Amino acid sequence: MRKVLTVLLLSTLAIGTASAETLHFGTTTANPPFVTANGKNQPVGFDIDLAHALCQQMQAQCQFTAQRFDTLIPALRFKKFDAVIAGMEVIPMREKQVAFSRPYRQALSGVVIVNKDVAHTFADLKAKKVGVVKGTLHQRYLRDKQKAVQAVPYDDVASAPPR
């Protein structure tokens, strides 16, 4: 599988019009430990800390709006916020819609299986259900490359039913 990079997604047009006092970020809480929700349902994690460091350098306040991952690009394009920080991989389809910064970390993917005897390869997952976050490359990969695996999309990791 091709190397996947995680990036800070910035809209250059939106950044140019952002208030000097507040930079409004769109994010998701579906990507722990990079972004998750704390006990007060506020986004926390590595990406949020990075956004705060950027705001500090720009002498601005950070504001965050958490929503489903698959709604972030449309909301950014409609200027609901100034930038997105959500571990979003750069792919041509997304690059046609928004501008990206340089990657700040590499994304690695894996599969979590409760019963270790169920599967060790994708072939073992044939006709099995695999939960994915809506709008991610994981959903697209299973749909396009692993057609025998049934991808079940969820709004976020917490929405998936416990097994």
From TrEMBL:
Pfam families (UniProt xref): SBP_bac_3
Every Solute-binding protein family 3/N-terminal domain range: 22-163
UniProt keyword Lipid metabolism, yes or no: no
Record keyword 4Fe-4S present: no
Main location: other
SUPFAM superfamilies: Periplasmic binding protein-like II
GO cellular component, one term: outer membrane-bounded periplasmic space
Signal peptide: 1-20
Compartment(s) of residence: Cell envelope
Keywords: Signal
Similarity remark: Belongs to the bacterial solute-binding protein 3 family.
Protein name: Solute-binding protein family 3/N-terminal domain-containing protein
Taxonomic source organism: Klebsiella pneumoniae
